[in-house]
Write a structure and sequence with these properties.
single chain; alpha+beta; four-stranded antiparallel sheet; 4 helices; about 20% helix
Length: about 160
């Protein structure tokens, strides 16, 4: 007999999002700037995306900033790339250094049961070297690609106010 949690996790479907830059594998860690209902995640992008999102100067360390509006839940923490297999969505196709959307999300269903918020019904997961970012929000927007972390940080703080 399967438990309700196991059954709901089997419904989770993990889809890769190609419209968000891939995180860099060997660079600085991501950071979050958040207000009550807006979250901006900033992180270094993979070198394989430099041509797609550039051009960049040779001394640039490109970062992107992704806005998640109407956020009702977010977290940044373990597992990282080395132990990603322990994540509940690993068996559903969660991959390292990638952005994902989870459809038929059991986490969205769990939060809907305890929250009256209707707009935040999408589950996003972005995986990094040492951490995984997850949030439940209404949407996402890549708000910018910047040449360095300090520029991305300034822009993120300006956008979250």
């Amino acid at each position: 007999m399967t438990s309700a949690l196991e059954s709901s996790q089997q419904e989770d479907q993990v889809l890769l999002l190609d419209s968000i830059p891939h995180p860099a594998a060997d660079a600085a860690e991501p950071f979050i700037v958040a207000s009550d209902r807006r979250v901006i995640l900033a992180y270094p992008i993979a070198e394989s995306d430099f041509e797609r999102y550039g051009p960049f100067d040779p001394d640039d360390d490109p970062f992107c900033a992704v806005l998640f509006p109407d956020t009702v839940f977010h977290r940044l923490g373990p597992p990282g790339e080395r132990d990603l297999e322990i994540h509940p969505l690993a068996s559903q196709g969660l991959t390292a250094y990638s952005a994902h959307e989870v459809t038929h999300s059991s986490l969205v269903d769990e939060l809907a049961a305890v929250s009256s918020t209707e707009s935040a019904r999408r589950h996003f997961v972005i995986t990094f070297l040492e951490a995984t970012f997850e949030c439940i929000a209404s949407d996402y927007t890549v708000v910018g690609i910047y040449g360095a972390a300090d520029i991305a940080s300034r822009e993120a703080f300006a956008l979250v106010r």
